[in-house]
Amino acid sequence: MTDSDTDRSHTAAPALIGALLHLAATDAGLAPTATSALSPKDSEILAEVEVALRNQTLNENGVKKALAEVAGSIASVRSSASPVPLTAAKYERQRTAVLGQLGVASSKGASVWPPTSQTAVQRFGSWNEALKAAGLARSSVGRAKGQLRFDEAAYDQAIATFVADCDDRDLGATYKAYGEYAAEHKGEVPSAAAVRKFYGSWNAALASAG
Residue 143 above 70 pLDDT? Predict the structure, then answer.
């Protein structure tokens, strides 16, 4: 396996979608559904998740258990009466829990499943596009009508994504670092000054990410 194969930005798209579906179902508290009728596309997603899990050197029982849970999650999302929502902040909270259950630690340069929300953003172009690819409810976050350019959910999502990216790269989630991050994503996320004003302090902003 080459370095490019293990780079976080090279996580297979179906495996990313599998992570989104699994964590969305977990966050929504959806009960696993019978998986006998998974579509060919969803079966491909499950197959890529299996590849990712085996790359993490889980034992056979661990892989089978995790795959059964993911399959149940996919089926439950697909059978839901309405599209299932998922914010980046909630994704990161559920991701931390799943990694703990799998006994896997996120490490710099490694392709860990579930990947960070930032990986999904990088792969699909935006969080909403990632949700769209997974068939989840698209978020209304982002620029809001009226005087407020970003709504509360957009601030929470921006901070959660930034913190996850810092964790993945072993960088400190500082106010200065966020300022540089916001400059790189100008117009897509609130500025550092806007974040501090919105939350009252940078520490309060970090606390919002859980």
Answer: no
Residue 110's Cβ-side half-sphere holds a number of Cα atoms within 13 Å equal to 15
Q: How far apart are CA 79 and CA 67, in angstroms?
A: 18
Please name which of 80, 69, 79 lies closest in space to residue 22, comparing C-alpha atoms.
69
In angstroms, the CA 69 to CA 67 distance is: 5
The SS3 call for residue 186 is strand
Residue 43 has pLDDT above 90, yes or no: yes
Specify the length of the chain in residues.
210
In this structure, what token pair is assigned to residue 136?
């989840």
Q: Fill in the amino acid letter for 55.
A: N
Question: Dihedral (C-alpha) 42, 44, 50, 55: value to the nearest 10 degrees?
Answer: -140
Token pair belonging to 188: 């897509």
Q: Which amino acid is at 86?
A: L
Q: Which amino acid is at 78?
A: R
